[in-house]
């Protein structure tokens, strides 16, 4: 991956990172540059490694949700819900249809929030700060929606094994309806600012491309793989949480460059909006959690009144719930790609082994290949358009 | 292609020595030997369309003498949408396994991560260094002998709950 061709033979070694104002997050790349042109790149990762897989081997199942928050912290609810569904699969818990739909709404909101961050930051890195400030207001509204559901904004710990801790309240519905009305208008404005903007297009077309063949070799997933031209989406391939009930399309790109990644994410935001509207329209009646008292905390007032509730409350809080032994791989379409949970249970109170398949970690290794022979400013763009999130990268 | 046909295909290509452990949660779970891995993945990738390497990780079972470590591969056939899990057991005394980077470039970091946390030696790997932990660390932290918390602590006593 080292280009030997030089302009005047004057090769410099340059540190991009670990903390650099242009890279959103803690990434270090040791670049060999010839003037502006990059000859080789050597990424160093692990600056915020927090040993989640080791931690998970000591925590009861319900306490691991808070670890998953900190993987891709731009879309924590997807990680939380993916983890809950993994445990549900292991324990054989069926959730009501209503829970599926509620989860779909939350996960698609999280996908929109994540894609908004990524795409508006691509704008920032090309010098268009305006769109970013507007889109962060929209993201703020999504965070307010999380707040109505679970009380938290960034590290949400949203939902429980078996469903949700409470039903969507009226304020949530009011705020969601307002969001669905206002957001498309503002989003279209953002779209008009950039997508067909000549300056922007000249800047990002051809920056950091990857072919579909190469992307599959590197096990890319999510928008980055689809931008390269392969329509792999876990929501369609292995529908979970009733995604088969919704009508949506999977945008694919052609060249796998920064522009394609940007456009694919833009279109995915629109598809996510459509999924949310469909889920709201078709929202089934029923309970907001499965009837699994051994996993789902009873209401607090019940704990003081009834013996069973007290027992279940105690067992869940102390991590004494029995869980079947077995091995399960479960994956959801995270905002960055296939977010997988490989869980080995020996029947104990904690997982015997838990491995997170983190899409960022897997596709970031292609970064040197994608930026070699391009200029430094394209390397910055490529990184932000790949949406490498340090939390997910380093686990 | 269902799991039985796939299992028959894997048996053909491993001289019937592959063991299908419980077919759990719809995914075929196949135990193979370390020296069969490269050839089996080769035919799976090139003849059966398992072109996508989902994941590589390992697990440590200290009580299984002679098979203390297990390296786990998840492959995905994107055309027929089928997944398979290959598992290779390794003894602590001979913790070597051929690298999959010959078939998938993306295996590079996944194997580095597995090496980092479990010390599995991927023979032939182009750049087998630690990836998430610091370079001068002298142990492999996800092995079970390393407790998460300091075991000499006396201020936290959970014995009442049997742990």
Note the main attributes of this structure:
heterodimer; A: 395 residues; mainly alpha; Cytochrome-c3 Hydrogenase, chain B; 2 domains; three-stranded antiparallel beta sheet; B: 163 residues; alpha/beta; Beta Polymerase, domain 2; five-stranded mixed beta sheet; two-stranded parallel ribbon; globular
Fold and architecture overview:
The complex is a heterodimer of chains A (395) and B (163). In chain A, a hairpin with a 7-residue loop joins strand 5 and strand 6. Chain A folds into 2 domains: 2-44, no CATH class; 52-394, Cytochrome-c3 Hydrogenase, chain B (Orthogonal Bundle). Chain A is mainly alpha-helical. The model of chain A has no long low-confidence stretch (mean pLDDT 91). The two termini of chain A are 27 Å apart. Chain A has 17 helices and 6 strands. Chain B is of the alpha/beta class. Chain B has one domain: 2-Layer Sandwich (Beta Polymerase, domain 2), CATH 3.30.460. Chain B has a 5-stranded mixed beta sheet with strand order 1-2-5-4-3. In chain B, 36% of the residues are buried. At the A-B interface, helix 1, helix 8, strand 4, strand 5 and strand 6 of A face strand 3 and helix 3 of B.
Please give the number of β-strands of chain B.
7
> What's the main sheet of chain A like?
3 strands, antiparallel
Number of helices of chain A: 17
Ends apart, CA distance between termini of chain B? 45 Å
Name the CATH homologous superfamily of the largest domain in chain A: Cytochrome-c3 Hydrogenase, chain B
Number of domains of chain B: 1
Number of helices of chain B: 3
Helical fraction of chain B equals: 10-25%
Order of helices and strands of chain B: HEEHEEEEHE
Could you give a short description of this structure?
By secondary structure, chain A is mainly alpha-helical.
List the helices and strands and how they pair.
The complex is a heterodimer of chains A (395) and B (163).
Chain A: E1 12-16, E2 28-34, E3 37-44, H1 52-56, H2 65-69, H3 76-91, H4 97-125, H5 129-150, H6 170-194, H7 198-204, H8 212-217, H9 223-228, H10 234-237, H11 258-281, H12 300-305, H13 307-317, E4 326-333, E5 338-345, E6 353-357, H14 359-363, H15 367-371, H16 376-386, H17 390-394
Antiparallel strand pairs in A: 1-2, 2-3, 4-5, 5-6
Chain B: H1 3-12, E1 19-21, E2 28-32, H2 37-47, E3 52-60, E4 69-77, E5 82-90, E6 96-98, H3 107-118, E7 121-123
Parallel strand pairs in B: 2-5, 6-7
Antiparallel strand pairs in B: 1-2, 3-4, 4-5
């Amino acid at each position: 991956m080292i280009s030997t061709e030089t302009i005047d033979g004057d090769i410099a070694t340059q540190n991009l990172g670990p903390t650099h104002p242009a890279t959103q997050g803690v990434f270090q790349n040791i670049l060999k540059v010839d003037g502006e042109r990059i000859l080789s790149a050597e990424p160093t990762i692990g600056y915020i490694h927090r040993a989640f897989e080791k931690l998970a081997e000591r925590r009861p199942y319900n306490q691991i949700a808070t670890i998953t928050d900190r993987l891709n912290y731009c879309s924590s609810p997807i990680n939380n819900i993916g983890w809950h569904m993994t445990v549900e699969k292991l324990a054989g818990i069926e959730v009501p249809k209503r829970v599926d739909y509620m989860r779909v709404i939350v996960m698609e909101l999280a996908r929109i929030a994540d894609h908004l961050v990524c795409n508006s930051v691509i704008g920032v890195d090309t010098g268009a700060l305006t769109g970013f400030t507007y889109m962060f207001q929209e993201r703020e509204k999504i965070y307010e929606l999380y707040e109505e559901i679970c009380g938290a904004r960034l590290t949400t710990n949203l939902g429980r094994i078996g469903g949700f801790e409470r039903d969507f309240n009226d304020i949530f519905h009011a705020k969601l309806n307002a969001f669905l009305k206002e957001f498309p208008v503002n989003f279209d404005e953002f779209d008009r600012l950039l997508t067909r903007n000549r300056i922007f297009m000249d800047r990002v077309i051809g920056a950091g491309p990857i072919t579909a063949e190469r992307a599959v070799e590197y096990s890319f997933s999510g928008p980055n793989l689809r931008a390269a031209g392969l329509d792999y989406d876990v929501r369609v391939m292995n529908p979970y949480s009733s995604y088969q009930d919704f009508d949506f399309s999977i945008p694919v790109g052609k060249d796998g460059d920064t522009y394609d990644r940007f456009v694919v994410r833009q279109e995915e935001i629109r598809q996510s909006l459509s999924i949310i509207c469909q889920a709201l329209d078709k929202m089934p009646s029923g309970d907001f959690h499965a009837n699994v008292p051994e996993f789902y905390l009873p209401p607090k007032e019940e704990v003081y009144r009834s013996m069973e509730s007290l027992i279940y409350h105690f067992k869940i809080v102390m991590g004494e719930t029995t869980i079947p032994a077995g091995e399960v791989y479960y994956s959801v379409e995270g905002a960055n790609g296939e977010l997988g949970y490989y869980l080995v249970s020996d029947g104990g109170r904690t997982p015997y082994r838990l491995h997170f398949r983190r899409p960022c970690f897997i596709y970031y290794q292609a970064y040197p290949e994608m930026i070699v022979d391009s200029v430094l400013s394209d390397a910055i763009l490529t990184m932000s358009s790949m949406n490498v999130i340090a939390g997910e990268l380093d686990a | 292609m269902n799991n039985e046909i796939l299992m028959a295909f894997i048996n053909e290509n491993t001289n019937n020595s592959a063991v299908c452990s419980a077919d759990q949660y719809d995914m075929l779970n196949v135990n193979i030997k370390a020296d069969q891995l490269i050839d089996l993945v080769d035919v799976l990738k090139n003849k059966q369309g398992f072109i996508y390497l989902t994941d590589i990780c390992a697990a440590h079972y200290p009580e299984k003498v002679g098979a203390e470590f297990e390296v786990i591969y998840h492959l995905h056939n994107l055309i027929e949408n089928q997944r398979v899990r290959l598992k290779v057991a390794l003894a602590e005394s001979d913790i070597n396994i051929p690298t999959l980077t010959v078939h998938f470039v993306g295996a590079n970091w996944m194997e580095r991560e597995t090496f980092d946390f479990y010390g599995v030696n991927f023979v032939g790997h182009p750049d087998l260094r630690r990836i998430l932990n610091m370079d001068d660390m002298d142990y492999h932290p996800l092995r079970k002998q390393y407790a998460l918390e300091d075991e000499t602590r006396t201020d936290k006593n959970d014995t009442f709950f049997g742990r």
